Amino acid sequence: MHFSGKPILRSKNKLATVLYNKKILPFYYKLGMSWENLPRIEPGQFIMLRISHQVDPLLRRPFGVYKTFGQGAMSKKQGIEIIYKVVGKGTKLMTDLKPDDTVDILGPLGNGFPNPLSSPFAKGGQRGLNIIMVAGGIGIAPFYLLAKNYQRSAMSLKLLFGGRGKDDLPGFEDFQKLDSNMDISTEDGSIGKKGLVTDLLKKELSKKGAHIVYACGPKGMLKEVAGIAEKADVPCYVSLDNAMACGIGACLGCAVKTVRSSVFGVRGKKEINSQLSTRDSQLYKMVCKDGPVFNAREIAWEEL
Ligand SMILES: Cc1cc2nc3c(=O)[nH]c(=O)nc-3n(C[C@H](O)[C@H](O)[C@H](O)COP(=O)(O)OP(=O)(O)OC[C@H]3O[C@@H](n4cnc5c(N)ncnc54)[C@H](O)[C@@H]3O)c2cc1C
Ligand code: FES
After folding, report:
1. Protein residue with least CA distance to atom 31, ligand 1
2. How far is 247 from 81, CA to CA, in rounded Å?
């Protein structure tokens, strides 16, 4: 259930060939890239992509791995798909990528979502395990692999997917094709329930409860999800998307303030913390190396 805190250094940078780069919604694209000898990639792990050979933007940009394909098949090209939102210089440049262009990938990096079967609730096996995935907009990225991995398991997996409007739900159809159990919310009511995805979570937890909540999306949403899960006494894991420069723990640019992991438990975090000085009870972790997925109770949310 716990993360090793070590970078996955079997990762090397690779030159990959662009297979496709499709616009799927006004601000969202899917980028497919070949990857020979594709390693196993856990849901929540990411790659650092160097988009251009120009000096600006020099830095790589982090992207979650959305899909993998071709594993185990001799004849089929192996590769990955990422789903990206155009927000700035780098992602705008990415929209110009064409089939057969070469990109530079570093990965897979980081620690993904913990396997639900390592949860103390899974002692009796998969049957009856109730998992909720909460995604906000582009925060959907890690959940396709997760849903696919457990698609045929005896666990119950539910996706709560929220966005501003119908154009802010990238990959929505992929989950329909997977036959996922999914509830949608949009702030403008253009599709699904009008409101926030956190409203769906509150409803789901009060109706059916859950054994684990996994979440990815904007920080405000994650903070709210963490609070709701804590109130309901449900373990919650969040994927953070701090801006990154190196992606491998070298530049300290993605630091996040945490509560020392040895002092939080499922219950009673506050009583234990009150006996410790601030210096003792808080420390910084690197989102790229120690995360991007963290136990929600580990994050100093008020400092984020
Ligand atoms: C582990 C991880 C996984 C990610 N997975 C995905 C993914 O699957 N798909 C996807 O579209 N994006 C993902 N992101 C976010 C993505 O890396 C940024 O959107 C991208 O780096 C922006 O690059 P840019 O050059 O276009 O924007 P910049 O020109 O660098 O910035 C443009 C604007 O976007 C903001 N911004 C930049 N980086 C981030 C960030 N990390 N979070 C929030 N705002 C940011 C800047 O503050 C600025 O306002 C992920 C980030 C992390 C850390
Ligand atoms: S991005 Fe450099 S330490 Fe995390």
Report:
1. 88
2. 19
104 close to 58: Cβ distance less than 8 angstroms: no
Question: What residues line ligand 1, using a CB cutoff of 6 Å?
Answer: 46, 57, 61-64, 82-85, 87-91, 138, 141, 241-244, 292
Residue 126: per-residue pLDDT: 67
105, 85 in Cβ contact below 8 A?
Answer: no
- The model's pLDDT over 110-154, given as tens digits with 9 standing for 90+, comes to 999 998 877 766 666 667 789 999 999 999 999 999 999 888 787
Count the helices and strands in the chain (H runs, E runs). Answer: 8, 16
Ligand 2, atom nearest to 244 Cα:
1
Q: pLDDT value at position 121? A: 66
Q: Which residues line ligand 2 (CB under 6 A)?
A: 244-247, 249-254, 286, 288
Kindly report the protein residue whose alpha carbon is nearest to atom 27 of ligand 1.
88
Question: What pLDDT score does 5 carry?
Answer: 39
Ligand approaching nearest to the C-alpha of 58: 1
User: Taking CA 95 as the corner, what is the angle to CA 94 and CA 98, rounded to the nearest 5 degrees?
Assistant: 90
Ligand 1 atom index nearest CA of 93: 26
Identify which of 6, 252, 285, 294 to mutate to test ligand 2's pocket (most ligand atoms within 8 A of the CB): 252
All domains in the chain, ordered by first residue: 12-109 (2.40.30.10), 113-239 (3.40.50.80), 243-304 (no CATH)
pLDDT score of 273:
41
Residue ranges in the chain modelled with pLDDT below 50: 1-11, 262-280
The CA 268 to ligand 2 mean position distance, Å, reads 32
Residue 276: predicted pLDDT: 43
CB 219 within 8 A of CB 272: no
233, two tokens:
């006494």
Q: Kindly report the pTM of this predicted structure.
A: 0.89
